[in-house]
Every structure is written in structure tokens, then in C-alpha cells.
Amino acid sequence: xASIFRSDPHPPCPSPFNLAAHVLTHxxxxxxxxxxxxxxGETWRYGDLSRAIRGTAAGLADRVPPGGRVLLRxxxxxxxxxxxxxxxxxxxVPAPTSAQLGVDEITSLSGALDxxxxxxxxxxxxxxxxxxxxxxxxxxxxxELPPANIVPGDPDRPAYIVFTSGTAALPRGVVHAHRTVWxxxxxxxxxxxxxxxxRLLHAGAFxxxxxxxxxxxxPWAMGATALIPGGGTDxxxxxxxxxxxxxxxxxxxxxxxxxxxxxxxxxxxVLRHGLSAGEKLPEPLRDAWRTATGTxxxxxxxxxxxSTFVSGGPARPAPPGALGRPQRGRRVAILGPDDIPxxxxxxxxxxxxxxxxxxxxxxxxxxxxNLRGDWRLTGDxxxxxxxxxxxxxxxxxxxxxxxGYRVSPLEVEAAAMEVPGVEEAAAFEREVRAxxxxxxxxxxxxxxxxxxxxxxxxxxLAEYKCPRIVERRDALPRNPxxxxxxxxxxxxxx
Length: 494
What we know:
9-stranded mixed sheet; 6-stranded antiparallel sheet
């Protein structure tokens, strides 16, 4: 039996369609219901949120030509989702970016994006160049403009662009269609288990794609309430918020669950379950959370290019050791070296259908080298049993994961190579204890340059990309053809 999972296809996306209109489906009916609670800050009701988004759409439409790109440089505030959805409502293409990126990093991304406008808060680095900049004050003033009509169109047209690290030296722009939010109903059903009466608390920042999708867009599309804590909230306080804010669903990366367990979670009588994505959830961590709280953590697997498409969920929890099962409406396979599905139980490369409604339109200005006929490779190894449950076996490439963010080793290595005396460098993941991995960097040099390398990385890279371990080597592992073997460094015993 071949390792391929098929189910009835997901209903096609309506046409014409607009992502923002779909997210605001319940805004008029639930005008007085809280849509967003900034814990310790403002509460936004659906009616106010809708008016702010449509007013922003009116203001942006006067500044940017139809289909124009808008670079978002905003911090952890409600300004981010209002600007994001306002741009989409106006028929523009926003590109959210991490507020942690420095001037050099964001200048490179801006050059690839070629935006018509940058929306920026004063405390976030701006790209060099002469692109017009909209200040936070001017952005907020747009909310008071007469609400614009949301612009409908082809569901396959570009809606937004996110940047993701792959095997290239620079992050790649992932272009998503409006239909991608329609496809998210598959994960709402088979992973999140969201209901209109839910209060979902997400531990991440507004401008992270995991928070944007799972923490904001999905609750709003269901008429639920999104709870977002302030940036840098410590685990003990976060645990208290789960109780005091009556959160029914909690979403975070595995490391957040681990830190909450260390702080001692309170009794949370209304919490129904947790959600985990961004990196592999260790089974002992899942067991420890269940013992401490009496609730399950449901894991999902996805990528910036397709969001999540394999998961367990309240309606069908994953068995021990399994990553999850393809969501209903998906088509997923495990491929061998010949790009043909392997036999059930055999290891291979995890792939999703090239026709998946949640799959990106493509990379910005680049070809997608992972397309294989009817399939798109993910870069991860896995095995599938006869019932479709998938076991995760690790990366098939050198891309690293730090706190849920994908990081290219080439970015880290390029920063290290700027230090005089460094002859070559290799960035890799190192497991420091069971289920905990960090970014490490080994370099070859005639003398110890650890401090200089660490300082240069801190200056050149966002904090989450910086190596936590830096070490000098006399030589770096290479194969007989001279290719750097990062895998050999990953597999070393510390």
C-alpha cells in the first residue's frame, strides 16, 4: 500500500472573494462582541474593528495604486492586523515583517519586494531608500475615514507576502493568494477545534505569521475572541492570563509550554486544549502538560508556504509518537528518491499536493525548486501508517528552527564570515537536552575569535537568528566532493 492520503476535496473558494471580507464575515452580526483583547490594553469589538479596517483601506487606496505592495514595519500592537487587513481590503498586497530585523536585513527584503509604501512605527528599523513612509500617527488617523467598500476579485490573485528562510542566503518572499484564508477552515476543523464562543490566547507577537493566522484571522473568521498578551510577557504571568482571561484555547510554540510548566501552571477550569506549531513538540512535554493541567496539546505541521496541513485535534487526537494526520480536504504523500510514494511505513520525503488550496502562488521573483509533478516537497522526512497517521523523522535539508522561526544557515554564516580571520563557517542546530535545540556556529580560524563572531552576528542579525554557541574548529566536516556537511555537526555528541 502506497503512502498517500486522499480525501474528498475541500469546497472551492467562492469567486469573487476578498480575504479581509472573509475574516470580517461575522463583524456586523457580532458588532458589540469583543473581537480582540489586548491583555492590559484595549478591547476591540467587532464593529469597531471592521470600521477601523475599512477606514484604513480608504486611506491606503488613496496612496497606493491597485495591487501595489505595502511593507509593514510595525511592532506588537493592534496597528499591525488593522494595517494588514486594511491593505488587503483595498486590493493591495501587504508584506508583514519581523520587528526584530535590523536595517541591513530589512533593506535587502525591501529591495526584493519593491514596495509602493512603507508603514512604520518609529521604534522599528526602516529600510534605506526613498520609498514613501506612512507614520503610525497617520495610519491611526485613517481609521476615522469613511469606510471603504472591500474590493472583491479573483481568489487566486496575490493577497499578501511573507518572508521565510530556506536554503538560500536571503529570506524568500512567499506570495499567498486570497484563497489561502478559505483553506484555513480545514485546520480550524481538524486542528484548532475553534467555536464562536471560544477565547483563544496566543503567546506570540502580532507580526508573526503563526499569531496572525491562528491567533487572529481564524478566531475572527469564526466570530470568536482573540486574546493577545503584551510582548515579552513572562511564562508565570502568561499562565495567570490563561486563567484570569478565561482562555478556552491556548496556542504557542513548545518552548512556551515548557517554560509555563517550570513556573507551575494554575488551575485553568475553562481551558479546553492547547495548540502547538512552529517546531516539533516532544512527547514528554505533551505528557507533562497533560499531567499538570488535565488538557491535551494538539500539534500541527505546516510551513510558511502552506501553513498547517497535518495535525491532530480535539475530534481526532494523534496517537502517541505521531505528528498528526492530513486534514480532511488535503492530499499528502511520502515520496521516495524517485518522487513516487513509498510503501506504507517506509521513510521518505513529506509532500503536499501542488493543487492544495492553501499552497502559495509561488516565490517572489524565484522558481520553486520543490515542485515534483503533482506534489510539493516540504524538506522534511516522515513515515505514514495505513490509517494516514504521520511520524516526523527530521529535516531533509539544513534549514534551522529557532523559537518557531525558520532560519537559513547561510544567513548566519555570512555574518560570521565578515569577521577578519574567519576562513569558513557552518551554522547548525544542536540538541542541548531532550527536545531542546538551539542555533550553533562552528568556524575555522587560526585563533580564537568567539567573541568577535558573536558580536558581529548580534550586530548583523535579528536576535532569534543569532547562534547561542560559537566555537572554533581546526577543520569543518566535508564530503569527498568538498561540500560542507552541516548534518555531521548536528549529529555530533556535545
